[in-house]
Specification:
The complex is a heterotrimer.
Chain A (H helix, E strand, L loop, with lengths): L1 H29 L1 H18 L1 H4 L2 H5 L25 H37 L1 H15 L3 H12 L3 H12 L1 H14 L3 H8 L4 H37 L11 H8 L8 H28 L6
Helix pairs in contact in A: 1-13, 2-13, 5-6, 5-8, 5-9, 5-11, 5-13, 7-8, 9-11, 10-11, 11-12, 11-13, 12-13
Chain B lengths: L3 E13 L4 E13 L3 E5 L6 H9 L7 E10 L2 E2 L5 H7 L4 E4 L3 H4 L6 H10 L7 H14 L16 H12 L6 E5 L7 H18 L2 E6 L2 H7 L2 E6 L2 E7 H6 L5 H8 L39 H5 L5 E3 L2 E3 L6 H13 L1
Parallel strand pairs in B: 3-8, 3-9, 6-7, 7-8
Antiparallel strand pairs in B: 1-2, 1-4, 4-5, 9-10, 10-12, 11-12
Helix pairs in contact in B: 4-5, 4-6, 6-7
Chain C lengths: L1 H26 L6 H6 L5 H11 L5 H15 L12 H36 L4 H13 L4 H15 L11 H31 L2 H8 L4 H38 L5 H10 L3 H29 L1 H7 L5
The chains are: A mainly alpha, B alpha/beta, C mainly alpha.
Chain lengths: 297, 335, 313
């Protein structure tokens, strides 16, 4: 008997979601900026996915000092750097690292933060106090310092970077999800579910989270670009993936001393960062408008 | 013949966004006699608040638009005034009390400052002491201890906040007070108090009033004349006797009365009006009410009814059009 | 009101202690030990062990933590740098001052640019005062601060030869770093202020003010502004984190001897004491700034102020 009820309920939630998603997509399409952003990001992602086909990894890391510091040409579309490496290949592969870390870190920070926030909001009382107080103290350390400490302690690597980025950004979601849970759990349908015998986790997962989704998603999309920029800042400072792995920030750091003689080294990675961040921001703004049209007018 | 203080004719108001055009008010006529209170009745979405905002020309700037009609206040068409002249009217000659007291007051200004502002905006020649004296008077008038004027809105309960709002509105003793559902957001017990206070003040100051409400009980207690609004139109209007005691009614009005729970009757069920108010972006052909009307005739689906006057009582319904009913009778007898 | 201030200031202490704890915790994951770092790779193990014992390295974590705090507060001793073998405190204090100067400049400039422009963009929505700053802010939000800094260097130092590219010897030296630090948060504050203003203007009490007959500029400046600025104040505090990151980057980029660049440099040299001390000091500034912001907010918002003063009714 109980399973039947839950199944019906699941169907309703899903159906509701499907037509909602269509509606959100329709509103999203209305915003020209968002569509442009989506196209740009699509192009970027395709290039990155097929990076190996377009420009083999070796060209990104193999040093060829005879070729160094060449201007963009037919052979090297973006020119070469101070070690003779093809900048185009480095840009593409660097993008791969940057973006894959950013997406993973975004997902991880969202999951960690939302879970903490949901627990704090739902259980309240002591649990809530402990989590929020700890969060306050945690947030008293400026992000970059904390990240530096983590990188120092764990040594620069993909995992370290992932951990550091997740730790830097999960706090965004905790407060957000907590307040969503607090307001939503007062709603009548949650009371009803509880009266029907549903337990904590079930209530959070099937009732509260779907409704909090909208806000979470908007924050998520807006955070992706922040993480991309932050990751590039870290690699600029030398705290990112260790060389010879290409990363946009690292490329820019190396380009510093050649600003006068080889400005193309500066231009291409910088453009890559800005274009990626812009496209993600456009999508993020579009999502925000699509999920809450009231905010626009 | 009484002096008419507010004369609205052929008023048409729309809200236009990129997506759609909402026909909020569709050619209404309203009159308020000096010293009298007109009750504007209708469900949410009927266009009552839009009408009120139009009088003060406070429609949301980029979407609200008055297409047609005139709003004459003591003979002057408000729609033709310059904004600076209109501003002189607001708060001084015509004042408005809004529905939600929780959000109508500025949270970072003291209650006294807000009432004082209402006064000084139209009386810049007064000394500070004079202004303070008047603030105290107004607070006392609505039953609030004057020493509380240094407090902030969040320190007052809902009912008290609404009293402050009323004190602000009556600060310059306006000739016309527009009250948009002033008690709807309050607890039931407080509602009666605030309503009585409004009635007393109105009687004392001789203020004319436009009382917007969906509660027929309030209409009975406080109004002289009534206008029933539906889908942006006046479905029926008349004196309070016409509406409450008259024999003929617009089917919608009938429905409104029928929806009221009655302790003395032994009815087992409420009889709500079936259906919903029409979508203002997509109004039906013919009479706006016909999809929900139990007396619907063929003509109602095709021809939009005019407003028919019988003395002080007007009705916008084909049922009361003598000519149409006569034709119908003929048709019936001929078959 | 004073109770509130006292309460918050007192709360600083456990917060700072908590911060130090967290940093200590993270650092405890570092491989290697201090004596080895100090004595070098080739030193005999016995010496290393002896020094480790002397330094208290083999003590339990909590005890190390308390010892550190004791030394820090009582003796103002932050230990000895593994790299330069100097007193950490002597090394970092002058740099600390420089970084604080930069950070303060950053806050002042970014607020002075971002907030007024945001208000203007909201009040004159859809006009050029709105569209141009908003588009600019959008692009700036996509540019990391080091790219911005390099752009400034490229234009003003390289091409135009107007401003010096490193060091801090003169006022002119501060211009580009200050700009590089302030512009990204200024852009964010512009967008935030604009949206807060727009949100406030839609509120019912603004409509009430108009219904009273107030002219539009009174409505905006007297009624809307104060309410809109409340969340903006909190936002300014929030942007301090971004500001510090910007300062670290700017110090590296413009070769400014601040604490940020020191920490970054010493990471490569595994100079733990310097990194710990530097991180703690910056975190303390950060916490103090957040406290000041909160206090300002509490002072201005009567709803909070009333909670802590004697109220009637």
């Amino acid at each position: 008997m109980e399973t039947t009820i839950m199944d019906n309920h699941k169907d309703k939630v899903l159906f509701h979601k499907e037509s909602q998603i269509k509606e959100i997509w329709r509103r999203f399409k209305k915003s020209k900026g968002a569509v442009i952003g989506l196209i740009m990001l699509g192009v970027i992602l395709i290039v990155l996915i097929f990076a190996d086909v377009i420009a083999p990894y070796e060209t990104a890391t193999k040093q060829n000092l005879a070729n160094k510091l060449q201007e963009p040409s037919n052979e090297h579309w973006f020119g070469t750097d101070s070690y003779g490496r093809d900048v185009f290949a480095r840009t593409i592969h660097g993008g791969r690292t940057s973006i894959s870390i950013s997406i993973l870190a975004t997902m991880a920070s969202c999951i960690v933060g939302s879970t903490l926030g949901a627990i704090a909001g739902y259980f309240g009382g002591k649990v809530d106090s402990i989590i929020m107080r700890s969060l306050d103290i945690f947030m008293s350390v400026p992000d970059i310092l904390f990240t530096m400490a983590v990188v120092f302690a764990m040594g620069a690597s993909f995992t370290t970077l992932l951990v550091a980025l997740t730790l830097a950004y999960f706090t965004n979601y905790v407060r957000l999800v907590r307040s969503q849970v607090l307001t939503l759990s007062e709603q009548d349908y949650v009371e009803a579910a509880r009266a029907g015998g549903a337990g904590g986790a079930r209530i959070i997962l099937s009732h509260i989270l779907p409704n909090a989704m909208g806000v979470i998603i908007v924050n998520l999309t807006l955070n992706v670009s922040k993480i991309v920029l932050y990751e590039s800042t870290l690699s600029f400072l030398g705290l990112g993936m260790p060389p010879p792995a290409p990363a946009w920030g690292l490329m820019l750091s190396e380009a510093r001393e050649f600003m006068r003689t080889a400005p193309h080294l500066l231009f291409f990675p910088a453009m890559a960062i800005v274009l990626t961040a812009c496209s993600v921001n456009l999508i993020g703004d579009g999502m925000r408008d699509a999920l809450d049209p009231h905010l626009k007018s | 013949m009484n002096e008419i203080i507010l004369d609205i004719k052929d008023l048409e108001v729309i809200y236009k966004t990129d997506l759609e055009t909402v026909k909020a008010v569709n050619s209404i006529d309203l009159k308020i006699d000096k010293g009298k209170t007109l009750g504007l009745v209708g469900e949410t979405g009927a266009g009552k608040t839009t009408t009120a905002l139009s009088i003060l020309r406070l429609l949301p700037g980029n979407t609200g638009r008055i297409l047609n009609g005139h709003i004459k206040y003591s003979g002057t068409n408000l729609l033709e005034l310059e904004e600076t002249e209109m501003r002189k009217m607001r708060g001084d000659k015509i004042a408005m009390v809004f529905q939600d007291p929780m959000t109508s007051l500025n949270p970072v200004m003291t209650v006294g400052e807000q009432i004082a502002e209402a006064i000084t905006l139209h009386n810049d020649n007064l000394s500070k002491e004079e202004v303070e004296k008047r603030v105290d008077e107004k607070l006392t008038m609505v039953g609030i201890v004057p020493s509380r004027k240094v407090e902030y809105p969040h320190q007052f309960s809902g009912g008290m906040k609404q009293r402050v709002v009323i004190a602000m509105a009556l600060a310059c003793e306006p000739e016309l007070l527009i009250a948009d559902e002033p008690t709807t957001a309050l607890d039931v017990t407080i509602q009666a108090q605030v309503l009585m206070m409004i009635k007393e003040l109105r009687d004392r100051l001789g203020t004319s009033m436009l009382m917007i409400t969906h509660d027929l009980g309030i209409v009975a207690k406080i109004c002289d004349d009534v206008a029933v609004m539906y889908a942006g139109e006046i479905a029926e209007s008349g004196t309070v006797e016409d509406i409450f005691l008259g024999e003929k009614h617009h089917p919608y009005t009938e429905g409104l009365f029928g929806s009221i729970p009655n302790l003395s009757s032994r009815a087992n069920r409420l009889t709500p009006i079936p259906g919903l108010m029409p979508d203002p972006t997509n109004l039906p052909e013919g009479c706006f009410f016909h999809p929900r009307c139990k007396y619907k005739m063929d003509i109602c689906e095709r021809i939009h009814p005019e407003s028919i006057a019988k003395g002080t009582h007007t009705l916008r319904c084909h049922l009361f059009d003598d000519k149409i009913m006569a034709d119908k009778m003929e048709v019936n007898t001929n078959e | 009101m004073y109770r509130y201030i006292a309460k918050r200031v007192l709360f600083l202490i456990p917060t700072v202690l908590g911060v130090i704890f967290i940093i200590f915790l993270v650092m405890s994951f570092t491989p290697g030990d201090p004596a080895r770092a100090l004595l070098g790779v080739s030193a005999p193990q016995a010496d290393v062990d002896a020094l480790n014992h002397e330094l208290g390295y083999d003590l339990p974590f909590i005890q190390k933590y308390f010892n550190y705090i004791k030394r820090m507060i009582i003796e103002r001793d932050f230990g000895t740098s593994y790299f330069t073998k100097q007193s950490v405190f002597d090394e970092i204090w002058p740099r600390y001052i420089i970084t604080i100067k930069l950070a303060l400049m950053g806050i002042i400039i970014s607020t002075a640019i971002g907030v007024p422009l945001g208000i203007l963009a909201a009040v004159k929505q859809y006009s050029l005062w709105d569209t141009i700053p908003s588009i600019l802010a959008f692009f700036i939000a996509a540019i990391p601060s080091f790219v911005l800094g390099m752009l400034l260097l490229f234009i003003f130092s390289l091409k135009l030869n107007l401003l010096p590219s490193y060091g801090i010897n003169s006022f002119a030296h501060y211009i580009m770093p200050a700009l590089a630090i302030s512009i990204p948060p200024a852009a964010q504050q512009l967008r935030f202020t604009k949206s807060s203003m727009l949100e406030t203007i839609r509120q019912d009490y603004v409509r009430t003010a108009r219904a009273k007959g107030a002219a539009e500029n009174i409505v905006i400046w007297k009624h809307a502004l104060k309410n809109a600025l409340l969340p903006v104040i909190t936002n300014i505090g929030m942007s301090f984190g971004v500001l510090i990151a910007g300062a670290v980057v700017a110090e590296k980029l413009f070769s400014i001897p601040g604490i940020g660049s020191l920490i970054v440099d010493r990471i490569t040299y595994k100079d733990e004491p310097v990194i710990i001390a530097g991180t703690i000091l910056i975190a303390v500034v950060f916490t103090v700034v957040m406290l000041i912001v909160d206090l300002i907010y509490a002072y201005i918002d009567p709803r909070i102020r009333a909670k802590y003063t004697r109220t009637k009714g």
